[in-house]
Amino acid sequence: MSESLLGVDEKVAIVTGGGGNIGFATVRMLAQAGARIVVADVDGDNAAASAAAARSFGGQAVAVSADTRRVADIDAMVQTALDTWGRLDIGVNIVGGGNTDALILDAPDSVWDDVIELNLYSTVRCSRAYARAMIARDIAGSIINIASPAGLRAAPTMAAYGAAKAAIINFTWTLAVELAEYGIRANVVVPAFVTRPGMVWGGSPEEQLALAKKVVPMGRVTKAEDVAGAILCFASDLTGYSTGQMIVCDGGRLLTNPIFA
């Protein structure tokens, strides 16, 4: 597929959480498609490694250390894109997660505060910063947010996380409507459980694969590249008339009976 067909070449993107598993894959794909990228991550070393990997095969990327719970850090990463390349076309909000392994009656307010701050509020603040930069420069850009299957069905022991991700989906729909007059699109990618090196939740890689073969119609766990591909699709001209839409990357898992999970 040519870069001209995707329409991403020389566009400027910000990827938050760009040093993580999904972020690293997204940065790589955007760079391969010709985009110029600000790789933002709370871990500056991970951001630098991701940016270096993008540059190693000819891409353009700069790294910034940014905590997307802090407005000053968000403003700084947007300014980095503007100072470096003079524009912003694509904003990808991957930052999220949080430890919510507790029942609703047991989880203290502090858990809810932390999870909502990390997932929902960071997405809202970043999206507003991207949109303002795009509108000021008359750029019909694309904003891509990340939700979760936990936001589409009940999420026992993960209520705060599920509620935050459900809110992100609704927020993205409303954002799409409010930004449509500026030609700015807002869409959401919903990845299923994505493994990463050193992860212990969900069992060993062999146990995760065995479970996936039972409950996922396509018979495997979700890869970071699966999610990155959906993000690139929404960033590209291929979805130039799609806004307020959702791509679920789960191999068909949500189509099955939950009793088999």
For the structure shown, list the relevant keywords.
14% strand; 261 residues; single chain; alpha/beta; Rossmann fold
Structure notes:
With 261 residues, the chain is of the alpha/beta class. It has a single domain, classed as NAD(P)-binding Rossmann-like Domain (Rossmann fold, 3-Layer(aba) Sandwich). It has 8 helices and 7 strands; from the N terminus they run H-E-H-E-H-E-H-E-H-E-H-E-H-H-E. Strands 3-2-1-4-5-6-7 form a 7-stranded parallel sheet, sandwiched between helices. Helix 5 runs parallel beside helix 6. The radius of gyration is 18 Å and the shape is globular. The N and C termini lie far apart (37 Å). The mean pLDDT is 93.
Quickly describe the structure.
The chain is an alpha/beta fold. It is built from eight helices and seven strands; from the N terminus they run αβαβαβαβαβαβααβ.
Give the total of beta strands.
7
CATH class category label: Alpha Beta
Q: What is the CATH homology-level superfamily?
A: NAD(P)-binding Rossmann-like Domain
Strand content: 5-15%
Termini, distance in Å? 37 Å
Oligomer: single chain
Q: Write down the overall geometry.
A: globular
Radius of gyration: 18 Å
Helices, by number, come to 8
Mean pLDDT: 93
Fold-level CATH name: Rossmann fold
Uncertain ranges? none
CATH architecture: 3-Layer(aba) Sandwich
Describe the main β-sheet briefly.
7 strands, parallel
Q: How would you classify the helix and strand content by structural class?
A: alpha/beta
The ordered string of helix (H) and strand (E) elements is HEHEHEHEHEHEHHE
Number of domains: 1
DSSP helix fraction? 40-55%
Strand order within the widest beta sheet: 3-2-1-4-5-6-7
